[in-house]
Amino acid sequence: MAAESVRAPFALDVAAWLVTYALHSTALLLAALLAFALITRAARRSSRLADVAPAWRERIGKVALLAGVATASVQTALGIEPFGLRPALVEVTEPAVVVRGSPRPPGSRTPLWGSLRRRSRGARGPRRTD
User: Fold this and answer.
1) Which residues in 21-46 are b (16+ Cβ under 10 Å) and which e?
2) How many Cβ atoms are within 10 Å of 126's Cβ, its own excluded?
3) What is the dihedral of CA 97, 109, 120, 103, to 10 degrees?
4) pLDDT by residue (tens digit) across 21-70?
5) Among 24, 63, 84, 108, which one has the highest count of C-beta atoms within 10 angstroms of its own C-beta?
6) How far is CA 94 from CA 13, 73, 77, 120, 130, in A?
7) Is the pTM of this model over 0.70?
């Protein structure tokens, strides 16, 4: 039981980091794509900029990739909640609906698909054994 309570916060932290990374990296990569378009447009007008445009695009792309990891890690480590939003990642230990005929002792867990399977079987009738 103690090992499960240690694992649950770690799993929630990892899930929160992954969601944060997905949001940050998406925003940063979209900004990088916008910068690529602007650099390409400016490079068409200037021969001097056309020579250095590939290097700038490469730098911007690398920064966008690494900045997603960095900003997600810093935000998760410091516990910053943007706009006062809290992550809705909660571990469910007890089911909201108890399937009739299957009393469980407190603290026991049943996978969601198992309870759904039992519930739907009862609605369709008994299984055929032919």
Assistant:
1) beebbeebeeebeebbeebeeebeee
2) 7
3) -60
4) 999 999 999 999 999 999 999 989 988 888 899 999 999 999 999 999 99
5) 24
6) 21, 31, 29, 20, 37
7) no
